[in-house]
Description:
By secondary structure, the protein is α+β, with helices and mostly antiparallel strands. It has helices at residues 20-26, 74-86, 146-154, 164-177; strands spanning 3-7, 13-19, 29-38, 43-49, 60-61, 64-67, 96-107, 111-123, 138-145.
Amino acid sequence: MEYLDVLDSTGKPTGEKKLKTEIHRDGDWHKSVHVWIINSKGELLIQKRSLVKDSHPGMWDISSAGHISTGEDSATTATRETEEELGLELEAKDFEYLFSVTQEATQRGGYINREFNDVYLLKLYLNISKLKLQKEEVAEVKFIPYEKLEEIIGRGDKDFVPHPDEYKKLFENLHQRSL
Length: 179
């Protein structure tokens, strides 16, 4: 059972903690991390979400992501999630914090998502055939040039989990780096 800290609308902890299912049922603000993995060719690793996920099953998404459990910090969650979902054993220092964004959405079945997302970039060469995917979370992964992903997202492709503010900021950041 995963407990999360309940936040107010400004991102400050309320002192209350709830099960993740209760957080999404009640529409409480909470915190998560999003990790984008990029290789030396300027390709982003994207994952196809498992068909058993409660939100956006079977859709393409961020390299790795997860909720910040009660008592955890953002960097610890980033390392934990990349290990759980992809089998990568890394340290907090490997992750570059980029920015935070808020996200609000309601999905089928009354699933309400109100998150503060800490977004990280991880520069890494990977042989994706060697990754150990967590089958309950991840169906498959692939690399895609970030400019191509930007083009696909810009067309409004329905195969990708919507993160409009995050995508915009991520692509701006990557363009500034001249990858």
